[in-house]
Structures are given as C-alpha cells and as structure tokens.
TrEMBL record:
SMART domains: AAA
Protein name: ABC transporter ATP-binding protein
Gene Ontology MF, one: ATP binding
The organism of origin for this protein: Roseivirga seohaensis subsp. aquiponti
GO CC terms: plasma membrane
Length: 594
C-alpha cells in the first residue's frame, strides 16, 4: 500500500515535468513484458513437437493458446522450424522494445534533469529578496547541486522499479491465463516477502531524509568556510571550524553507512526468501495438484521471471526510497521558491528623467519598525548621502529604493509612477549598486566590467571609458595582461579601493542613471578614503548619486546629507549646514576626527 502511495505521489512530481512521455516509457515496458511472455510460451509447444514429433495441441498454454491458433489460421505447419522462428521473432521484437524502453528512459531522464535545473534557476532568479535573506544558504546550494543528482537517481530507480512492477503484472496476467493457482501462489509469496521488508523500507526513507538535511548542513558549513576563509585563517579559528566540518562529514558517513547496511540486508535476504517461495510453489503444484509437465515448466518459467522482477523491484524501490528524501526536499524547496516569487507591474522604465519620491514610507520586520514615515524626494542627478548610526535603517532605505523590498506603508514612485505598477527589473537596470564588499567575479577584468560582453571595438571603447571615469584605467593598463588579467579567487587580488573602483566601472559601463554606493563600514585608510571621495566628486552631477556613508569625510561635497536616526530622517541639508545646525551631526563628524 505504501509502495502504491509512494508511487503515485512521486508520479505526480515526474508527470508535472514529462507529461505523456511517462506513458511512453511505461508503455514500452508493457510490450517488453508481453513479448517476453509470448516468447517463453512458445517453449512449451516446442518441447511438445520435439517430444512427440507430431502435431501440437497446446493445451498447457491455457489462454495463451490463441498464439498457436493464430499460427494455424495462417496455415503454417506446426513444426520445430515454425515454432523456433516465431519464438525468435518474439524475442527480437522484445529486444527492440527493450532498447526503446531504455532509450526513452534515458532521453526523458536527461530532459527531466534539464527542466528541473532550468526551472530552479528561473525561480531563483525571481526569488523575493526579503525571503532570500531569511533562507538557508547551505540548503539552497545543496538542493541546487548534490540534491539534483540524487533526484536524478530517484528518477532512475523509480522508473526501473515501475518497469519491474509492470513486468510482474504482465507475468501475473500471463500466469493467470495459464494457471490461476500458480499466479495466486506467486502473489502470496511476493506479498509475504514484502511484509518482511517493510521495516527496512521505512527506515530507508527516514534515513534518506536525514541524509538530505545533513548534506544541507555540510554545504552551509563549507560555504561559510570558503566565504570567511581569511578571518578563520588569520585568527587560527580554521582548525576548530574544520573540526565542525569534519563532524558533519562523520554524520553523513554514519547515515550513508546505515543506508548501505539496510540495502545489504535486503539484497542478502531476498534470494533465500524467493527460493523458498519457488520451492513451495513447485512442491504444491507437483504433490498436491499433480499438474502436467508442460504446465509446470511454463509455470516455472513465468515464476522464475516474475520472481526475478519482484527482486529487481524490491532492489530498485529501496534504491528509490534511499533517494526519495532528496525528492521530498526538492518538492518542498520548489514550493517555497514558487510561493516566494516576485510579482511586478507592467510599466517599463526606459529612462529616469525627473525624481524618485517616497511618501510616508514605513517598513517593519514583524514587530520591529525599521523605517518610520519617511518623506523624501530625490531629484535626477542630485547627490545624496545617507548617514546615521548602525541599525538606523540606511540599508533598509536603499533596499526600498532598489525595489528589493516593498514599504509596509506609504508609497514610492519614480517619475510619478508608483513602484507597484512598474516592471521592477527595468527599473533595476537603471540602477548601479556598489555594495559594501565590492563584487568581484573569478574572471578577467574585461568580463568583470562588461559582464561577459563580446569584445567588439564599440564595447572595448565603452569599457575603456568606464575605466577612465572610475579612475582605474591607468592601473589596468599597467598590468602585464591588462584587461585580460584574471581576478578573484583564481587570480590576482586587488586592494579594497581598486575593487571598489572596478565595481564602479562595471556600473558605469551599464549606462545607468542612478548610482548607489554603499561604503564599507570598516575603517578605510586615508588613501582609499581620498580615492572614494575623488570618485564621488567625479560622478556628482552626472548621475543620481546615493551614498551610504560611514566615513563622513568622503561626502563633504554632496548636494544633501540625510541624517537617519531610529528609522526617521531627523535632519537634512548640505554638509556645512548640518555641521552648523545639527549637534548630532557635529558630534558624529568630531568623533571621526574630521
Ligand atoms: N531580515 C531582517 N529581519 C529582521 N530585522 C532586520 C532584518 N534586516 C535588518 N533588520 C533590522 O533592521 C534594522 C535596520 O537595519 P539596517 O540594515 O537598515 O541598518 P543600517 O543603518 O544599514 O545599519 P549598518 O550601518 O550597521 O549597516 C536593524 O535593527 C536590523 O537589526
């Protein structure tokens, strides 16, 4: 029963991807089974002809005798050669369908894998930022890589198991036709062995789910180890952290070992049990019912075939259960992604021409109000600095401006169009964002800046212009491989200031209207500070510039400084105005020894 429930639940998942194709795979199996059965059935008349050297009666074939009737209707002589040719024909046809069965399974399995990967990538692309920040990065990584492979295994074992079930049904059907008693005994024998294995199946399923969870944790720890490598290394925390990783590896080993042991028990116990059933059936048929030799031989053939498929089905099904945890996790994860998809309006933004307006904007995380009644108009090409103590809501304000999160109350609009009605990706294309920790990909400088554009003369010109504007052109030219120099984990390392200027170049290359610069919180050295101030001064007036500033010296020349405190804009004005009018601002500046 559980088997059938498991079959249908997973069937729905596979069906959602492959639709009618599933029936092609399973249909081919039905033909394989039937042709094999017919082929085997031919052995009985063959023995009869050899034995009696004459006409064949075919009584032992039961309802399968129609095959012989058909041959007779064709006026074919009932000789050894005819029967051998027909037998051969059945097995050749079976071979063809066996090939088709494998061909379709493999083809659709690959298609299924591609679809699942593509869809996951698409859903991740439109994953709501607010939900993403609460998600488990290790789980995302694991589900997108290792778990997809386990789902692939689940697919394979599922279909091999379903194909085995079809073969069993076909043989049982044939067996019922030939000898109903035989079929009944096989069914009872098969069911009896299954009951014995039930506990093992259940345990396998539980362990499989556990394996997915352990793998999620492993990926989470590993990712954090990679991301925080510098810190862990420099503080020698890497040794205890590696211990944590090893502990997780041990957990995975433990679960996988238990899964392996259960499978070994299943494999070892299966054959003796099946032989017991076979022996029992032969004993009953010969001694109690005194069945004829032909009927028993055919029964035995079907019995042998059916039971070997029972064994195959048990093996594949247990394999499927071993991977079904991954399937469950994939279903859950995809449901979560689906429920966390962004929705957008339809108005496409081609350019930013007037202003961004926030009216009475508030934002809360559950009970925590982070922004309160923010009223703000940012004119095109205005340069604005947002300052305030840690936790005052600066990043939240930027996230709202970028359309990453939506205000809990109030409205935000661009050139008079409410964000709710905008196709936000088109707005986000107009925004350049230089994050606190500048984003550098492990690739060439050219690809880092142009985002893998083709190197045409026009693109190269734009690339160089962007480098010049971001004041990093001379540095790139001074490198041995110039713009082909590889950066990131597999290439050269840049200083903090260089990374930031390269990120600025990337955003300028994109030809954006709005530039957001989130300064690093860590104390910058005077040289980098000066470089950043220079960058800001160059970009001022040409772009709508929003700087989240921690080092106040860098924003000396912006048009307007907003002082955020506890989610409210408490003061605003030029740097000098605030320095005179605002005690709080003055204190902040003084504390930085400005
Ligand atoms: N996903 C979240 N869930 C719950 N609270 C959050 C979340 N993100 C931020 N907060 C809280 O919102 C408040 C404002 O955070 P925000 O990141 O906007 O501050 P900030 O001014 O940018 O701080 P910093 O200068 O330290 O980066 C903080 O109290 C923070 O703890």
């Amino acid at each position: 029963m559980n088997y059938l429930l498991g079959l249908t639940k997973s069937f729905r998942f596979f069906y959602a991807f492959l639709k009618y194709r599933i029936f092609i795979i399973l249909g081919a199996s039905v033909f394989v089974g039937i042709l094999d059965g017919f082929g085997l059935a031919m052995i009985v008349p063959l023995l009869e002809v050899v034995d009696k050297g004459g006409e064949v009666e075919g009584d032992e074939l039961g309802s399968l005798s129609f095959v012989l009737d058909f041959l007779r209707a064709l006026n074919l002589p009932m000789e050894v050669s005819t029967i051998v040719v027909v037998l051969l024909l059945f097995f050749i046809l079976k071979g063809v369908f066996k090939y088709l069965e494998g061909f379709f399974r493999v083809t659709y399995q690959q298609k299924f894998m591609r679809m699942i990967r593509d869809q996951n990538a698409d859903m991740f692309c439109y994953y709501k930022y607010s939900d993403f920040v609460l998600s488990d990065a290790g789980r995302i990584q694991n589900t997108f890589s290792a778990e997809v492979l386990r789902v692939n295994q689940a697919f394979q074992t599922y279909f091999l198991s379903a194909q085995a079930l079809i073969m069993i049904s076909v043989y049982l059907g044939l067996a019922f036709g030939v000898n109903p008693l035989f079929a009944l005994l096989v069914s009872i024998g098969g069911l009896a062995t299954n009951v014995l294995f039930k506990r093992i199946y259940k345990q396998t399923k539980v362990l499989s789910r556990q394996l997915s969870n352990e793998a999620n944790s492993f990926h989470g720890i590993l990712m954090q180890m990679v991301n925080n490598f510098k810190y862990l290394k420099s503080t020698s925390s890497i040794v205890p952290y590696t211990g944590k990783l090893k502990q997780q590896i041990k957990e995975i080993e433990r679960v996988q070992k238990r899964l392996g042991i259960l499978d070994s028990i299943l494999q070892a116990a299966r054959e003796p049990l099946i032989i017991l059933v076979v022996a029992g059936v032969i004993f009953i048929q010969v001694n109690l019912y005194g069945d004829s030799l032909g009927s028993i031989i055919l029964s035995l053939l079907f019995l042998y075939r059916a039971l070997s498929f029972v064994m195959a089905m048990q093996k594949q099904w247990n394999g499927f259960l071993g991977h079904s945890g991954a399937l469950d996790q994939m279903v859950e994860f995809r449901d979560e992604l689906r429920n966390s998809q962004e929705s957008f309006g339809e108005v496409v933004v081609d350019k930013f021409s007037r202003d961004i307006e926030l009216r009475n904007v508030s934002f809360s995380y559950d009970d925590l109000t982070v922004l309160k009644g923010v009223d703000l108009t940012i004119e095109k090409n205005e340069s604005i600095a947002v300052v305030g103590e840690s936790g005052s809501g600066k990043t939240t304000l930027i996230n709202i401006l970028c359309g990453l999160i939506r205000p809990s109350f109030g409205t935000i609009s661009l050139d008079g169009n409410n964000y709710e009605g905008l196709y936000l990706p088109s707005l986000q294309k107009r925004i350049g964002y230089i994050t606190q920790e500048p984003v550098i990909f492990s690739d060439t400088i050219f690809n880092n800046v142009t985002f893998w554009s083709k190197k045409t003369p026009e693109i190269l010109f734009r690339f160089q212009e962007a480098l010049k504007k971001a004041s990093i052109y001379d540095f790139v030219k001074s490198l041995k491989n110039t713009e082909e120099t590889i950066l990131g984990t597999s290439g050269i390392n840049l200083s903090g200031g260089q990374k930031q200027r390269l990120s600025i170049a990337r955003e300028l290359f994109k030809n954006v209207d709005i530039l957001i610069l989130d300064e690093a919180t860590s104390a910058l050295d005077t040289e980098t500070e000066k470089e950043i101030q220079a960058s800001i001064d160059v970009l001022r007036g040409e772009y709508t510039l929003i700087v989240v500033a921690h080092r106040l010296s860098t924003i000396r020349n912006v048009d307007r400084v907003l002082l955020l405190s506890e989610g409210e804009i408490k003061e605003q004005g030029t740097f000098d105005e605030l320095y005179i009018d605002s005690e709080r601002f003055k204190r902040m500046v003084s504390s930085q020894n400005y």
